[in-house]
Design brief:
Elements lengths: L3 E5 L15 E2 L11 E4 L15 E2 L11 E4 L15 E2 L13 E4 L15 E2 L11 E4 L17 E2 L11 E4 L20 E2 L13 E4 L23 E5 L5 E12 L9 E9 L8 E5 L10 E5 L3 E11 L12 E11 L16 E10 L7
Length: 372
Amino acid sequence: MRNLRVLLSVALLVSAASAARADRQRIAPGTGSQSAVAIDTGANGICQTAAQGDDVQAAAVGQGTAFQPVIRCGADRTASTAAAGDDGQLVAVGGTCQNPNVVVVDSGPDGIADTTALPDDRQDLAVGSSPPNTACVVTGANGVADTPDPVGGDDVRLVPAGTAAPNTQVIRCGPNLIADTRANNVNAAGDDVQLVAQYGPCANANTVVVDSGANGIADTRAEGPDLTLQIAKPLKLTIKRTKGAATRAVKLVTRNVEWSPTAAVARNYLLFATDGSCPNGTVTQVDADARTPGLQATATVSRGGQMKGTFLVSFRLEDVTIVDKKIPYRCAVQVETRALDTSPDPDDAANTDNNETDVVIEVVDQSDLPRR
């Protein structure tokens, strides 16, 4: 019997979960929107403004916004293009894309495209260019634009200095479709706006119950049933106050424990990881063979042997909203190993679930928490 399975060095995790009924927090109390673009790159796509205060430099001065899509997967859903220059390879050549719009190559840290698409991949950004009006400076931990107006160049001011983006989402309705939250329950003097009356019905789970009002600062904490369940040995990340993101390499081991005396001496396999319940773009740089330089979409594991693989998980501060360090942001990415020799039939592995698993990740964003 074929038995090719993937194990995680961080642990195989078992979780129990139920639908959250409480309203959902979108901006931490006392802060503004951490994802607001204070200044964009203008028509030329090049950032010419240096961030000040705790604003985040989304694009280095003299460069475009980093990691913009350059090449997308084509109709065959197989990555064909190798990254050039400092562009980033997000899907290994020969790797499988979830759909034809998956980004195969991004523009790397300088934000300028260096790569030309090969058939049947699709060119999203012309070589030598950067996309116009992308983020140059974004509001940082406090959600307030601290950077003065641009001087020279064509950068564009979007959020006035000293302010937060007004009327941004603070509380969304939960799955019970009842607005449980009363505006300004953290700061009675706040100007948050109640858009759905407390205990009133919501149109859907994404209905905005409270926004941040004219000053853009959240004065409200989500209310409603709020139980938490601890999961054994989750993968934990912390976004530091002085950082805009946190990244961790997840290590995996694929073992070939096939036992039949007539079995093949080795199996070729594809390592496949998706964002699962995590924000789009959480998973990048999936590598089936960590011992070989570069990204390998596939690898070969001998009978009785094992192969190490990796992928990266990344979270930006605007992806994560928490109200207490004891209540981390939690999501799960999905990982699967596919025996290519048996395709299109799945590797049976006695139970096909042995070939896939969820990696539970807990993230704490320190910038969402009040300073002590």
